[in-house]
């Protein structure tokens, strides 16, 4: 990998285009110094790993695998301790075990992790008690504290994002390949989980079946090395283009550009303008790309995005992450899927059942109902079943901690419970029990 400065292909074409949701740094020279420093840092991931993920997503698009993408809404600098990272990974591993075993489908595991520090906001400012300040845009930009000082965008934060991402990824890689993610540990991932939780008990029963299957295979002298580690990939929203382009490098094997800040990056609903900077940026890098599609997306938008981002129709290159809302998915998704399929393009279709289902509770907490989340996933499966296309995966905001941010679930959280452990830096996440509930229900839908 060589620094982008040496490349004959330019990543900088986005700079001439309108870029939505970018912070206004008070000192452009300070930003320049930071991005120059970032450009001298080693890549966080390798181009070959990105290609491997593209191949895996091609299997998803083809109907041979299921994508599980999940993690924090927004990672926070003070929440990247080993326990928090382990808890997130453990939740994803448990969900993946449920999906693999109960739905009998290979699961491609992708975290919203090691880079998910930047947030697009619906309003540029926030007002409390008559005081108006710039909105919090993620730890990579400014601080969540409601003070004038904290809300000023600080480019030094980009360096902290890089270092936190590197440390997180280092531990995730250790867990993924160093024995922790060994399928034989399927019980131990559940050990600290509330034994009297319905989701925990249901999982325990499934883990026993997996154990039996593993013992049977061992007795047959078949205990593949694949069971001892997992492939785990990192993804985040490519929102701050100054950061993403400073971390874009030329792959020495192919001479092509890769955004080496994560294996997969996605472009959000608020920044996917066809003539905007984000789509231009994404069109220049080779990574697998996700695009969020909200309820106003037209088939023409979707087809134009395919032409811009995947002109060569490379299998696995493009994932459409739909986030329509439970009340709209059955109405809006069919035409999109139909027209895209009719065009001959092969994209992976993934359901984000979180972002179209947010509301504010009377207590002022932003929340989501587990039943709405589930209903959107159900609608997603129904639409794909009706069209004979593949429901390729889910994209969820979750945490491994027992937070009280979304209402409902088997171990029900009530609106009055929200204040108990409401810890998200931005949007409400499913807790571990709700995440497992979702995995079981998705496995049932997939199987049927
Ligand atoms: O996670 C997504 C967005 O950043 C979030 O939904 C924006 O929410 P807001 O309406 O509070 O800005
Ligand atoms: C902001 C996000 O989603 P969307 O672009 O779909 O609103 C997100 O996934 O963090």
Give a structural overview.
α1 (28-39) packs parallel to α4, α3 (82-103) packs across α5 (198-219) and α3 packs parallel to α11. The protein has helices at residues 28-39, 47-61, 82-103, 156-177, 198-219, 241-246, 277-284, 299-309, 329-342, 370-387, 432-447; strands spanning 2-3, 66-71, 107-112, 125-128, 131-134, 232-237, 248-250, 257-259, 264-267, 289-293, 318-322, 348-351, 358-360, 366-368, 393-397. The chain is 37% helix and 14% strand. The N and C termini lie far apart (45 Å). By secondary structure, it is an alpha/beta fold. It has an eight-stranded parallel beta barrel, surrounded by six helices. It has a single domain, classed as Alpha-Beta Barrel (TIM Barrel). It binds erythose-4-phosphate and phosphoenolpyruvate.
Topology summary:
Layout: E1 2-3, H1 28-39, H2 47-61, E2 66-71, H3 82-103, E3 107-112, E4 125-128, E5 131-134, H4 156-177, H5 198-219, E6 232-237, H6 241-246, E7 248-250, E8 257-259, E9 264-267, H7 277-284, E10 289-293, H8 299-309, E11 318-322, H9 329-342, E12 348-351, E13 358-360, E14 366-368, H10 370-387, E15 393-397, H11 432-447
Parallel strand pairs: 2-3, 2-15, 3-6, 6-9, 9-10, 10-11, 11-12, 12-15
Antiparallel strand pairs: 1-7, 4-5, 7-8, 13-14
The site of phosphoenolpyruvate (PEP) has 9 residues, from loops.
